[in-house]
Amino acid sequence: MVQSFSRDLAEYQPQLFHVIEVFVTEPSSTAAVHSFLKVGMIRFLLPICLIFCISTFFWFFGTYHSDPFIKATLSAKGSIDKGNRIFKMNCVGCHGISAQGLVGPDLHSATSRLSDGKIINQVVKGLTPPMPSFEIDSQSMADLLAYMHSIN
Ligand code: HEC
After folding, report:
1. For all residues of the chain together, what is the average pLDDT?
2. Is the C-alpha dihedral spanning 83, 84, 85, 88 positive or negative?
3. 59: CA distance to ligand 1 center in Å?
4. Domain count across the chain
């Protein structure tokens, strides 16, 4: 048993040494391994980075333009007067009679801080309770936006 093991080892030894030799005495092969790893990493990471960047881009710029309600609202021409009335009926309880802020924030600078798409989402989606979501048609939403731009 012992004998056969040592014979086996003797048979394997040259092979073991050969492997060690390659790694220790040939720097070019280790360099090759390293550069292979580097290229492999880049090939692996680059597509992931690209996918991440592209989806972030679409997430930022695509959401608002692909939403049909937002599209319809932005293409409708709003009336400041009607918007004022809609605001007085629905929003003053929280944002104040002249949008100066009450429970909700002052909305005078809202249109310069927020994009139209964000404001539309704020009104129709109920993203930030306690502000409720409103069921509003796109024309009325356009009126409301026109009013909000007029007080900015
Ligand atoms: C029940 C109270 C309430 C009503 C009604 C309400 N809001 Fe608000 N609104 C809030 C609160 C509270 C916030 C702040 C939410 C937050 O924490 O971001 C807010 C935030 C907003 C914002 C974002 C402001 C900013 O600076 O980020 C806009 C725009 C807005 N409301 C518009 C409206 C409009 C237009 C209406 C009417 C259609 C309306 N709100 C009705 C309570 C209300």
Report:
1. 83
2. positive
3. 23
4. 2
